[in-house]
Design a protein that fits this description.
Elements lengths: L1 H12 L12 H7 L12 H14 L3 H14 L1 H10 L1 H8 L3 H7 L1 H4 L6 E4 L6 H6 L8 E5 L16 H14 L6 E7 L5 H4 L14 H18 L4 E4 L4 H11 L5 E3 H21 L8 E4 L3 H16 L4 H5 L2 E5 L2 E2 L24 H8 L3 E4 L9 H10 L4 E4 L11 H7 L5 E4 L6 E3 L2 E3 L2 E2 L6 H11 L6 H13 L3 H5 L10 H18 L11 H8 L9
Parallel strand pairs: 1-3, 2-3, 2-4, 4-5, 6-7, 6-9, 9-10, 10-11, 11-14
Antiparallel strand pairs: 7-8, 12-13
Length: 543
């Protein structure tokens, strides 16, 4: 009997879904065999939270804070999400960008306890069995990476697992998606990162990356296995190299419920930023000309969604595309170049060659420049001054992250444009004091889009995810920016309001899903109330 009680008590404390730590009442401690296994004091959840906040802030650096929070997730899931939701603006950079970048690079050094599923290409025939090993049979969301293009850091192999884990934490913390229905997955197809291959602590397959037909067959086997084991799951592709990202999305987007956040999520948050910026510049969407620095899947994704938004305003597809231009390491994308991928060609227009970005600005006179290159400081003084010369309120969006890869800082954009820039970035920057005014830089983070999209899919049982859903999300997000925030320079809502904003955006997406026949569930009488009721709240369940 004593051994049985001991096992019961240890089982409860070691299960992050059941553990309540010092919040267990005395009656619960007696019933569950926990007396003596915890200090005698019974704490409220708020008292527990204060201890967590103290311990987080006492850590030496952000990576240590990341490690501590990861351990908290492994031991007490409710307290973890209560912590994140207590101050999203403070905790999001700790559990996701920019800190998660360093965590991915040091994954093998800092891992305490595995989380999620690892699917090696060497076990392709066993994928169903591996997926069935997951404890929750009703998975609704899978974030999956192959670790090849982690943020701006490149190939991190299975160290990329930090990205799916972080993304799914934000699904819950920012939009109330129940954590038990989420599953992070890493596809291990090897790595071409020599540091990982030579590292004795590296935990992934020590072999070069598999490519070509074998890679495609593995992706297809994974997709089909998910359909068999988790038929209600939506798959979010994350941080795949551009050579794979666009083809995978194109192949499966009309067959299964899936999306690529790097392509579609980034596009939606950029479109929302442009629409909000136009409230400052007092211009029309159809009057915009965007020049992208970087011509990968993120740039093409933004350009494609912007094109569709213009088409919804009545422009032809051909005309709408001419509003988007791109510039990469070899110069301006134009129709005479022979080094372009198929997905880039729709935005390679008739034009002479241009080798310098500042020359492209002076030639094309864009109203907005968007950086998705991961080339830090690419928007130098000459670039910003050229934009300010051609526009009274130039739109400057350096979206690359982490911070050291941002094309420019907020300080640089405001200073070099003489305070005229309409600015947003992918990485966080502090407020800028310039000409007796304080500018609060907006962060164009995908967190404003993908968690809300996730909640909408969860609430509707959506069968597919379309670009139009992301346009709806962008429009809804833009409307959540008040005039007061615009006056401060913010073109996105403050992150402290992320849950409230996400649920409103999710309701608009869900409304579209129901109205256009993509739902597998019946439409409720009041969609907003329905979503509020579905949203996860971090409170301990009865045990």
């Amino acid at each position: 009997m004593n051994n049985q009680k001991k096992y019961m008590g240890e089982t409860v404390l070691n299960n992050s879904l059941l553990n309540q730590g010092t919040a267990f009442s005395i009656e619960e401690r007696k019933r569950l065999g926990l007396l003596g296994l915890l200090p005698e004091k019974v704490e409220t959840e708020d008292e527990q939270l204060q201890r967590v906040l103290f311990q987080v802030k006492s850590r030496a650096n952000d990576l240590d804070r990341y490690i501590y929070l990861s351990a908290l997730l492994d031991t007490d899931e409710v307290l973890y999400f209560k912590t994140l939701m207590s101050d999203p603006a403070y905790f999001m950079p700790l559990v996701y960008t920019p800190t998660v970048g360093e965590a991915c690079q040091k994954f093998d050094e800092i891992m305490r306890r595995p989380r999620g599923l690892y699917l090696p290409i060497t076990r392709q025939a066993e994928l169903d069995e591996i997926l069935k090993n997951w404890y929750e049979p009703d998975v609704r969301f899978i974030v999956v990476t192959d670790g090849q293009r982690i943020l701006g850091l490149g190939d991190q192999g299975i160290g990329g697992m930090g990205i799916p884990i972080g993304k799914l934490s934000l699904y819950t913390a920012c939009a109330g998606v129940p954590p038990q229905v989420t599953l992070p997955i890493t596809l291990d197809v090897g790595t071409d990162n020599a540091d990982r291959l030579n590292d004795p602590m590296y935990l992934g397959l020590k072999q070069p990356r598999v490519t070509g037909e074998k890679y495609d067959e593995f992706i297809d086997a994974f997709i089909q296995s998910v359909q068999r084991v988790f038929p209600k799951a939506c798959i979010q592709f994350e941080d795949f190299a551009f050579a794979h990202a666009a083809p995978i999305l194109e192949k499966y987007r009309e067959k299964v419920c899936c999306f690529n956040d790097d392509i579609q999520g980034t596009a939606a948050v950029a479109l929302a930023g442009i629409q909000t910026a136009l409230r400052i510049t007092q211009a029309k969407l159809s009057a915009q000309r965007i020049l992208f620095f970087g011509a990968g899947t993120a740039a093409v994704g933004i350009a494609t969604l912007f094109t569709k938004a213009l088409m919804m305003e009545g422009l032809s597809e051909e005309e709408a595309r001419t509003h988007c231009w791109m510039f990469d390491i070899h110069g301006l994308l134009q129709s005479q170049r022979h080094d372009l991928a198929d997905f880039q060609r729709p935005f390679a227009h008739e034009h002479s060659a241009v080798g310098r970005f500042v020359d492209a600005i002076n030639t094309l006179k864009p109203t907005a420049i968007i950086g998705v290159s991961t080339v830090g400081k690419a928007f130098d003084q000459a670039v910003i001054e050229a934009m300010a010369q051609h526009n009274s309120r130039p739109i400057i969006f350096p979206y690359s992250n982490p911070t050291e890869h941002s094309e420019c800082s907020a300080q640089e954009a405001y200073q070099w444009s003489n305070g005229q820039a309409v600015f947003a970035s992918g990485s966080p920057f502090p407020p800028v004091h310039f000409n007796n005014k304080v500018f609060v830089p907006g962060q164009g983070n995908n967190v404003y889009i993908f968690p809300a999209m996730g909640m909408a899919i969860y609430a509707t049982g959506a069968k597919l995810v379309t670009d139009e859903m992301f346009i709806v999300a962008a429009q809804a997000l833009s409307k959540e920016v008040s005039n007061e925030y615009l006056d401060m320079g913010l073109i996105y809502p403050p992150q402290k309001e992320i849950l409230t904003v996400s649920l409103k955006v999710a309701a608009k997406i869900a409304e579209y899903i129901f109205q256009h026949g993509f739902a597998s569930l019946d439409q409720p009488e009041d969609i907003s109330v329905y979503i509020q009721q579905l949203a996860y709240t971090p409170t301990y369940p009865a045990v």
